[in-house]
Design goal:
The protein has about 350 residues and is an all-alpha fold. The chain has 16 helices and no strands. The longest helix is centred in the N-terminal third of the chain and has 31 residues. It is found in: Cell membrane.
């Protein structure tokens, strides 16, 4: 039983490592023509945020929400207070540099700074959870998948070409974008489909969707006027890939294959720190960027290896800093720093 529970922490640990890798990608490959190998590996990371969504619904769909206030307030504060703490330095800089007013305040309280849009998504999920329970979202995975696909396709092919500077929060911070993964997580827990998932089918679907995602990425990158990182990340085929990967990893078969060792236990530990790491790693990345700029270091040689190494360094430093805070004051770290 302990091993099974640790497996889900392990999945969150893998997901947060992938999130860090997504953000180190643009540092290592800056001003560099992307190789096909780099693009392919980056496409593999598109299931990172979906894994967090599945995990949230998986563990919360059975939550007693009868007393809405008693349920909602602690959950909201658990996410929102660390969000405010980590967002405030970005907000202060925005005020100092750009004279941010009401817009800055809204970004501060709503997850509009840095890459903190996902906190806004989780807050929406907490607010809407009683509706998801009442209308049995877990029985409507195909419908939720269609909604997410339409939202993503509408943004990529209709909105983005006209409004490429649209803030991340405006499209990625809307729960419709991630609805299918919440439905999937709820179905795994509530509807008992974990034991009925075909590993072979999910694996075949993951491979096919990954190939489609790679092809769609190349197509979007070759469109006239495409920006350097267009096509990488959010897109309809990436949704299909993430759905297949999440279904595969949350199946009973994969959970049964999990074996505890030092490396997996460490990754599971990262998973237990995942929210704090998601918020804090951007500061480590910022500091790293300053050091790289000062030294003029440009990641010579094989970019994939530098990318992996830099990801590991950023993840480990972030984890070490959060561990130190937690050791000094567990209560403060839990309330204010998300660990």
């Amino acid at each position: 039983m302990k091993s099974r529970l640790e497996y889900y922490d392990f999945l969150r640990g893998v997901a947060v490592i992938m999130v860090v890798a997504i953000h180190t990608f643009g540092v290592v490959y800056i001003d560099e023509t992307l190789t096909l190998a780099g693009i392919f590996v980056r496409e593999l990371l598109n299931c990172a945020v979906p894994l967090f969504c599945v995990s949230s619904a998986f563990f919360l769909i059975n939550k007693n929400t009868g007393n809405y206030k008693m349920y909602l307030v602690p959950h909201i504060l658990r996410v929102w207070i660390p969000l405010l703490v980590y967002s405030f330095p970005w907000f202060a800089y925005d005020v100092w540099k750009n004279g941010a007013g009401l817009t800055g305040v809204l970004k501060l309280i709503g997850g509009g700074y840095s890459v903190y849009y996902f906190a806004a998504v989780i807050l929406q999920f907490y607010v809407l959870l009683p509706l998801f329970q009442k209308y049995k979202i877990f029985r409507n995975v195909p419908v939720m998948c269609l909604i997410s696909l339409l939202w993503v396709a509408g943004y990529i092919y209709i909105v983005y070409p006209e409004y490429s500077q649209l803030p991340l929060l405006a499209y990625g911070g809307v729960i419709l974008c991630w609805l299918v993964y919440f439905a999937l997580g709820a179905a795994f827990m509530k509807d008992g489909i974990k034991s009925r998932v075909s590993v072979r089918l999910c694996l075949a679907g993951s491979i096919a969707a990954l190939a489609l995602s790679f092809a769609e990425c190349i197509f979007l990158r070759e469109k006239p006027g495409a920006l350097p990182f267009d096509g990488i990340g959010l897109k309809p085929s990436a949704v299909l890939f993430a759905v297949c990967v999440c279904a595969l990893l949350y199946s009973d078969r994969c959970a049964q294959l999990y074996r505890r060792d030092a490396v997996r236990r460490f990754i599971a530990c990262l998973g237990r720190f995942s929210y704090g790491m998601y918020l804090a790693h951007m500061y480590v990345l910022w500091a790293g960027g300053k050091i790289l700029a000062f030294t003029g270091f440009g990641f010579p040689g094989i970019k994939l290896l530098w990318w992996a190494a830099y990801t590991a360094v950023v993840a480990c430093i972030t984890f070490a800093l959060l561990s130190l805070v937690k050791r000094i004051s567990p209560e403060i770290s839990k309330v204010f720093f998300g660990v």
